[in-house]
Amino acid sequence: MAIKTIRITTAEALVRYLIAQRTIVDGTNVPLFPGAHGIFGHGNVTSLGHSLETHRDTLPVWRGQNEQGMGLAAAAFAKASRRQQIMVCTTSIGPGATNMVTAAGVAMSNRLPVLFIAGDTFTTRLPDPVLQQVEHFGVPSTTVNDAFRPVVRYWDRITHPAQILSSLPQAVATMLDPGDCGPAFIGLPQDVAADAFDYPESFFETTIHESPRPRPDRGQLARAVEMLRSAKRPAIIAGGGVHYSRAEAELAAFADKHGIPVVETVAGKSSLVASHPRYAGPVGVTGAEAANAVVRDADVILAVGTRLEDFTTGSWTLFPAETHFIGLNAARFDAIKHRSTPLVADAREGLIELGEALEDWSTDTSWTENATRLRGELDVFVNGRIADDGVWPPSYAQLVGLVHNSATEEDYVLTAAGGLPGELNINWMSKAVASFDCEYGYSCMGYEISGAWGAAMARPRGEVFAMVGDGSYLMMNSDIYASVLSGHKMILVVCDNEGYAVIERLQTSQGGASYNNMLSDSVGTGTGARVDFAAHAASMGAVTFEVHSLAEFADALTKARQATSTAVIVTKVRAKDFTEGGAFWQVGVPEVSERASVTAARASMDKGLKDQRPGI
């Protein structure tokens, strides 16, 4: 029997294939690829752009203002949807493509699925060099799209129409794999995109995908159970993998039944609601001293879905060398870090089977009570930080407290680089699971606004609050207009401390002089000039508020919630009032210097490194 085929272009086949992919979210059959972010240029508008327009009702394209921004929005969408749906990003060749590389890095470091599709040069090379082509004299097959190779899990350049028959399923499988999940890249040369081919009709049949949930190996499970049963002071570190596995309920039940305190990484924050009896707080450099004290004293740590980055581990000074780790992770790479006993499995299924094997075992009540006492100290500390001291401008913590007070269980808060991650990580007490996003894997300035746009697309209920510093705002702000244009509302809080204050703090705390971070110590004759953020946001269609007291700020939050489109609240904030974290962090301080302050800082750094856990 002859295989039925249909003769269409490569670009058309790509679009039809993406539309045919479906998934189940909360019992409902929905598109795996619900939409795309796109900026068209000569490398993608005439073929891929034509096909996307033809199918605009089933694969809508949201117009981006900057290619990096739309990639960041796609990454935030994936985070907010807990990796259940995937956005597509398409650009032309050249600068459009390379603008997306940073966004790909964000998705890669945070293990988030995004499908990047960029135009590419002609495979025939007959018209070379084409507009925007960067020529490599000794390697003519290299284009700027090769820059994506280090920042994606799957990379391919389609040089013949038939290749998408194998490439697209592999890209989708990679993005859905819990262990290898990350962004995928497809380079689509201009001639190949336009070429026709006889594709099998079966290639476009509807496929319903379910993310695989690997179960733990019996031997690994037995070793993990033995370690926990022998533990006197066990603790759990909850990472982003808890969210991606949608294992929050299982984590809460496991911790409660076995009496084990839970601390959260930045990516894992809101794995538990703050009112859960086993919640001990945020861990690491941007964590709280009370929470760090729990893991510092623990003898066995169950690390669930975390890649154990330096901000979580205090550059590996937070844990004594004798602390034992169990790495419950879908990725083998993460499960074996720092001599961990691996438990390679889906977080939800791993917790279920681990709990069943432990039966009625629970830790000693004195250890549980100690964690509860430390959690009480955290509450006292946070309440002191967010309290109104009657001084203007306010601290970050005071602003976080007011946003938190106004938020409901359906709301979502988001931030990224600078001082705000530490402020939110410590001072925000989660009211609902999966309600928090701090992009700190790549610590990407500019994520805040674009990310809020993407998160708003993923969340049909509640408000999306984004807290952003003036530095990140100036770096990337055009997606305020994108959110207005698309109708995806967010509430943006712009905290103006007149510079890159958190990096200035690092600069001076390590013995350096304040230079080129605060506006006041930058080079130039216009250092007294200031941006009117409220007017700027208003020019992009946002409802804006500029406040001059905490009472005005609280009132603006109420009015922003009542607004029907994106609202921006602008406030001054103290430049040097930060909530202190509770862990050491290794940075590169000069070994020799003519500055006594730098020499002293290096001595302090060397002293801290004496507690660093060996990386073997």
Automatic annotation (TrEMBL):
Q: Name one GO biological process term.
A: L-valine biosynthetic process
Domain named Thiamine pyrophosphate enzyme TPP-binding: which ranges?
A: 437-569
What GO CC annotations are associated with the protein?
acetolactate synthase complex
Any Pfam family:
TPP_enzyme_C
Thiamine pyrophosphate enzyme N-terminal TPP-binding domain residues: 47-132
SUPFAM superfamilies tied to this protein: DHS-like NAD/FAD-binding domain, Thiamin diphosphate-binding fold (THDP-binding)
| Family matches, as InterPro entries | DHS-like_NAD/FAD-binding_dom, Myo_inos_IolD, THDP-binding, Thiamin_PyroP_enz_cen_dom, Thiamin_PyroP_enz_TPP-bd_dom, TPP_enz, TPP_enzyme_TPP-bd
**What UniProt keywords are attached to this protein's entry?**
Thiamine pyrophosphate
Extract one GO molecular function annotation from the record. Answer: acetolactate synthase activity
Q: Where is the Thiamine pyrophosphate enzyme central domain?
A: 221-353
Q: State the family it belongs to.
A: Belongs to the TPP enzyme family.
Official protein name in the record: Unannotated protein
Taxonomy, top ranks, is: unclassified sequences, metagenomes, ecological metagenomes
